[in-house]
Amino acid sequence: MYIARHKKFDKQFKKLTLAQQQSFTKKLSLFINKKNYESLRIHSLSGKYNGCMSMNVTGNIRAIFETVDTDTIFFIAIGSHSTLYH
Q1: Can you give the pLDDT at residue 4?
Q2: Cβ–Cβ < 8 Å for 5, 21
Q3: CATH number of 2-85
């Protein structure tokens, strides 16, 4: 599986704490190996991120992505629930 990241995602990722960055890395590993793993709470989005999916990183941190094709995932944004959706 190929994982691509938008420049915006990279900038937001760098602003996360080290613990949040490590949590994303662990969750990404789960996602790659077993997409429907329960703790990821993956769900589709509407509105501003219509057509995208959200993945739970921590209790408050979400990663937004879209599936480009069967082998490519494109991460668009990462941050707190309130920052991303408001």
Answers
A1: 96
A2: no
A3: 3.30.2310.20
